[in-house]
């Protein structure tokens, strides 16, 4: 299962570091190639010689090799690795990771990591439950780090409670289930539209909307995280993509988004229409800046833009189409009407009446409606978590194409 996988094992300074030798051995036995990166304190708990012998690779700890002066490249490690696992992660290392305090090789490696990162915390129960630790854990979760929750039991302090690093076997299970999940959509081609469109009026003005693109970008990360080949057609937004496998195509107007999306959708297994596309565009775009006239009012004549979702719905085949509906009233009724009119398989409804939903927000509260009328409603969650719910919901349709 782990054959050929490149794993960076980060070890920080806690008693549980002795278990990391066992974890390392299990990973190597499963066929993984493991590079150990240890903090200076970690070396107080387990020797680099043991770890080097078990991994078959020199352990990395300092920025420079003491004898040769050779620079240890954390950037190269980030490119080499398929996964980084920090076990044990002490409260201090978790705090540094959450806040970008790059004072050792483990943290610089984390900050350069392009791959998924997992953290197995280990500390005393009071340290674990301290608001500061919990705040840092939430930050890491928001940053996309997978937390392998500590177990409850006897702790090094003699106290009993939650804080004990999860057993190496359970960490290996979490690693395997991550890799299994990351391959669920391997070979699937997914196109996602995101963000607003800008419709030019003249060289300095446009008609736009408040869409931030966050939902579409979160979906792109989620699909890519499961191994899909993702093309993200993005309107003008100030967001970056994290997963280097996402192919991003930037567009400005609705017509441009339509053309780029339709061509990207050729041969796609799934298209998710998360963009807030302008329904109308100025009939003519002035080549020069429109000057203020003496009149008290002025009129702009608009013409209809193409409907990307409907165009794709007309030539649907067995491609899975997922649309969005942002409504203010008669929400379910309007969303179902849109789903039918545009020939979609799924529609994700969010209501502008919900304070946690909508434009510019980090959270969303959605109801996912299928073409058979089935509905699943979810509580308010981060857009990344909502993206995971959406992918889970549409997964059966994607799997049934096989
Ligand atoms: N959509 C699209 N192209 C358009 C307009 C909308 O692909 N020109 C997609 C959106 O990305 C969304 C779905 O269609 O997935 C519904 O968008 P919405 O703006 O709510 O639908 P409209 O048909 O424009 O309806 P309304 O009258 O409510 O604006």
What does this structure look like?
The longest helix has 17 residues, at 383-399. The radius of gyration is 25 Å and the shape is elongated. It is built from 13 helices and 21 strands. It is α/β, with parallel strands linked by helices. It has helices spanning 17-29, 48-55, 74-80, 91-99, 105-112, 125-129, 131-142, 168-182, 214-225, 254-264, 308-314, 331-341, 383-399; strands at residues 6-11, 33-38, 83-89, 116-121, 146-147, 151-154, 160-164, 189-194, 199-202, 205-207, 229-234, 247-250, 270-273, 280-282, 302-304, 320-327, 346-351, 363-364, 367-370, 375-377, 381-382. A hairpin with a 5-residue loop joins strand 6 (151-154) and strand 7. Helices cover 34% and strands 23% of the residues. Bound molecules: cytidine-5'-triphosphate.
For the structure shown, list the relevant keywords.
402 residues; alpha/beta; eight-stranded mixed beta sheet; five-stranded parallel beta sheet; binds cytidine-5'-triphosphate
């Amino acid at each position: 299962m782990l054959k050929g996988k490149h794993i960076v094992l980060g070890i920080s300074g806690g008693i549980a570091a002795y278990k990391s030798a066992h974890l390392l051995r299990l990973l190597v036995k499963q066929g993984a190639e493991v590079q150990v990166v240890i903090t200076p304190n970690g070396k107080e708990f387990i020797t680099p010689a043991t770890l080097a012998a078990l991994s078959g690779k020199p352990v990395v700890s300092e920025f420079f090799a003491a004898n040769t002066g050779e620079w240890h490249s954390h950037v190269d490690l980030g490119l080499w690795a398929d996964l980084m696992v920090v076990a044990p992660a002490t409260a201090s290392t978790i705090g540094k990771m959450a806040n970008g305090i790059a004072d050792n090789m483990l943290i610089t490696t984390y900050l350069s990591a392009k791959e998924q990162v997992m953290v197995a915390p280990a500390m005393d129960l009071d340290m674990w439950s301290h608001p500061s630790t919990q705040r840092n854990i939430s930050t890491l979760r928001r940053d996309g780090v997978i937390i392998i929750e500590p177990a409850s039991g006897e702790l090094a302090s003699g106290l009993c409670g939650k804080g004990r690093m999860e057993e190496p076997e359970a960490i290996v299970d979490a690693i395997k289930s991550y890799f299994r999940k990351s391959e669920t959509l391997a070979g699937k081609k997914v196109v996602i539209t995101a963000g607003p469109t800008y419709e030019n009026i003249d060289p300095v003005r446009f008609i736009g909307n408040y869409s931030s693109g966050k939902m579409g970008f979160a979906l792109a990360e989620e699909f890519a995280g499961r191994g899909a080949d993702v093309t993200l057609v993005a309107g003008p937004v100030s967001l970056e993509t994290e997963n280097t496998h996402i192919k991003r195509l930037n567009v400005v107007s609705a017509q441009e988004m339509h053309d780029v999306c339709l061509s990207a959708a050729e041969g796609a297994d799934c298209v998710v229409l998360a963009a807030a596309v302008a329904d109308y565009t100025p009939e003519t775009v002035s080549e020069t800046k429109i000057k203020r006239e003496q009149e008290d009012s002025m009129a702009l004549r608009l013409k209809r833009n193409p409907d990307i979702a409907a165009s794709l719905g007309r030539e649907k085949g067995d491609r899975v189409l997922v649309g969005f509906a942002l409504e203010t009233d008669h929400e379910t009724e309007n969303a179902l009407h849109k789903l039918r009119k545009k020939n979609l398989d799924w529609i994700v409804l969010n209501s502008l009446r919900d304070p946690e939903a909508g434009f510019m927000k980090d959270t969303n509260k959605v109801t996912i409606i299928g073409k058979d009328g089935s509905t699943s409603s979810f509580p308010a969650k981060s857009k990344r978590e909502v993206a995971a719910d959406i992918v889970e919901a549409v997964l059966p349709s994607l799997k049934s194409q096989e």
